[in-house]
Write a structure and sequence with these properties.
The chain has 199 residues and is mainly α. It contains ten helices and no strands. The chain folds into two domains: 102 residues, no CATH class; 96 residues. 68% of the residues lie in helices and 0% in strands. The relative contact order is 0.09. The model has no long low-confidence stretch (mean pLDDT 81). It comes from Glarea lozoyensis (strain ATCC 74030 / MF5533).
Length: 199
Amino acid sequence: MEHSGVKPDVVCWTSRVHGLIECNKGEAALRALDDMGRRWVQAVVKTHGDLKNKHMQTIGDMDDIPKPSIETINAAITGFIRRKDPEQAYRVLGWAAKFCINPDVTTYNILLRPLIKEGRAKKAAALLGQMHKAGLQADIVTFTIILDEILRTSESSTPEALKETISEVFNPRILWASPALWRELVKNMQILIRFFGIE
């Protein structure tokens, strides 16, 4: 592609990174991320001189060189989570921080799913707390992840264990979603409570 004079855009970089992870080439994917970032930084320095990190947030793509984006980060994190390699996923988050790329709701949802699936309610609640501290509100996907996993595992859970999981994840420290989402959540929780006879 580049030999023909065409520069990769953010979609090409994202596809490359995600594809390498899917082919079990995680280190190559991280090198591709580094390559993407290095090219962008070189273009920024060439145009603007050395900048502090906080000023990098205000600069977007440079000519034909795309700035690393949260979409690229989320694709990489998704790939590593699917391959059951959360350590690499968090490494990608560390890399993103160097470019002032902050996690978005999608990022948190990607990280939340395996925690809920593995029954790690305390870690899930902590992650939701971090999301809140970052000023992000849970979306319907967040609640769907939580409720789907709770319902999926409910057959093998006692009503008491189910009640404990629900109250741990939805504890008062994280009552910060929009009113519309909470109405939907309360409606679904009432259905769950009636279904399981939890009083």
